[in-house]
Amino acid sequence: MRNLYILFLIPIIFLTFHIKESQAQTGEELVNICNRIATKDGAKYLKDFTVKLNAAPAGEDAPRDKNSFMLRKNTQYRFSVCSSKDYDGRAIVKVYDSSKLLASNYVVATGKIHRSFDIKCQKTGAYHVFVEFEDGKEGLAVIVLSFVEKF
After folding, report:
1. If you count DSSP H runs as helices and E runs as strands, how many of each does the chain have, helices first?
2. DSSP letters along 118-131, please?
3. Residue 38, Cα to own-chain centre: how many angstroms?
4. Which of 3, 4, 38, 124 has its CA 20 to 30 A from that of 32?
């Protein structure tokens, strides 16, 4: 009888740990979700990057990640942002040309964080993309850069 309990207990323990692991979102799943958002109206995938940041220590500014891209004049691009449901932090993305903020998925006036935003480049050059998580929380996000159109 004891062997019978062990035979039932081992699969239950295995399944418990396996189910927990399978529910976590991987970077690849986030890329796929974000790519569907980015290309919903014919935009073309260009590049993606993943950002994972720890929570900010008490009394300190939120940590942030910086990436730079060469973008072309007279071109509209889309940044799609997918934050992992496994972390509390929601990604805030800001695009700068030198020191000037051009676009963001965060609207200060309403406090709303959008899943994507478009930017129309007026000149060819390096653009800097900063990513941080809302309220300095720990987070994982994937950002997909897509080509929308030439104008």
Report:
1. 2, 10
2. EEEESS-EEEEEEE
3. 12
4. 124
